[in-house]
UniProtKB/TrEMBL annotation:
This is Cytochrome b-c1 complex subunit 7. GO terms for cellular component: mitochondrial inner membrane; respiratory chain complex III. Component of the ubiquinol-cytochrome c oxidoreductase, a multisubunit transmembrane complex that is part of the mitochondrial electron transport chain which drives oxidative phosphorylation. It comes from Ephemerocybe angulata. Keywords: Electron transport, Membrane, Mitochondrion, Mitochondrion inner membrane, Respiratory chain, Transport. Belongs to the UQCRB/QCR7 family.
Length: 127
């Protein structure tokens, strides 16, 4: 898949027991090393908002998801100003770090592809 989500090998890794066993600890280590969870972020909070596709996907979030996203952004901004992560009991756990925006982005990308497909249809008039 191309677009704001780029190419993903996740389905391949999830379908293979060997790859999953090898890649999962590496992925967990990388997420911990990135330290975004220490500031209360979820992975989808890091997606660039300037992309029009992501803007449309953000418009599809529920009011609760929108509020939670804004709260996480403000809390992380405050922690950044203080030059310290938030308290450990408020860190995002791996179980809480679910993709809430990615499905919406994927739907927007599919809709854009369908729109392009229909916009290039040639209509032939039969006499």
């Amino acid at each position: 898949m191309f677009g704001p989500l780029s190419i993903s090998l996740a389905p391949l890794v999830q379908n293979s027991k060997v790859l999953s066993k090898w890649v999962t600890p590496l992925a967990n280590w990388y997420a911990d090393a990135a330290r975004y969870r220490q500031y209360g972020f979820k992975y989808d909070d890091l997606v660039m908002e300037e992309n029009p596709t992501v803007q449309r996907a953000l418009g599809r979030l529920t009011p609760r998801e929108t509020y939670d996203r804004a709260f996480r952004m403000k809390r992380a901004s405050q922690a950044s100003v203080l030059h310290a992560p938030i308290p450990k009991d408020q860190w995002t756990t791996p179980a809480e770090d679910v993709r809430y925006l990615t499905p919406h982005i994927a739907n927007v990308v599919e809709e854009n592809a369908e729109r392009v497909k229909w916009d290039t249809v040639i209509v032939v008039k039969k006499n």
